[in-house]
Amino acid sequence: MHISESANIGKNVKLGHNLIIEDNVVIHDNVIIGHNVVIKEDTIIEKGCVIADNTILGKKPFKASSSATTEEKILPPLVLGEYVTIGANCVVYRGANLKDYVFVGDLASIREDVEIGEYTIIGRGVTVENKTKIGKYVKIETEAYITAISIVEDYCFIAPEVTFTNDNFLGRTEERKKYFKGPIVRKGARIGANATILPGIEIGEDALIAAGAVVTRNVPPRKIFAGVPAKELRDVPEEQLLKNQKFYKE
Predict the structure, then answer these.
(1) Which strands, in side-by-side order, build the sheet including 44-45?
(2) Residue 150 has what pLDDT?
(3) Residues of the chain whose pLDDT is less than 70?
(4) Domain that holds residue 199
(5) Do residues 166 and 151 make contact, with C-beta atoms less than 8 angstroms apart?
(6) How many domains does one find in the chain?
(7) Are 118 and 137 in contact (CB under 8 A)?
(8) Residue 110 has what DSSP assignment?
């Protein structure tokens, strides 16, 4: 176990075995940290968080020579808000900011320049790439892939194995770098399992994308789209709209 002398650890913090806590880490009261956890320098963990075994917090990104979206720059510390839960074998990068009560399942990866709002659930094996913003009360289920430069607004639902994309040129030509953009998913929209969303597509508020769809054009609010390529099917039923759900808070 290695705990830096400059780390600041609060009251009633439970520490597992074989930990590495680097310089200037701040851990507030009543945090639980499992075995074999690595907490990189400057990371801030607010009160009541739970960090499961074999997780790495505050990792700096490596830049591949051919990477088009990873920048070499100074990043702010990783910040975990109050009562955040991070599962086993996760990697959460420096420069991410997870707000209060976020839940992250086992084997998830959350990159730098990512913001995740209150009470959002990031499922098992989900990847959230860099420069992405995710709102509050969002649910992203098992092994979904959220590409870089994406936006997911409040109360969205993203089913297992959904794939976001951000490069219409599929890695060819330098010109493509001017046009990188992930999807924008507006408030309350829902995306079914195994759907693929093409770069820069906007899915309107309360829209629904059927399982297996390939979305190649913008989707208007409160419409159901299905198929390959996805086409408008009908309106979202009134009883399914976000404003009519008991859990919805303005």
Answers:
(1) 8-9, 26-27, 44-45, 79-80, 97-98, 114-116, 132-134, 151-152, 184-185, 202-203
(2) 98
(3) 64-70
(4) 2-61+76-234
(5) no
(6) 1
(7) yes
(8) E
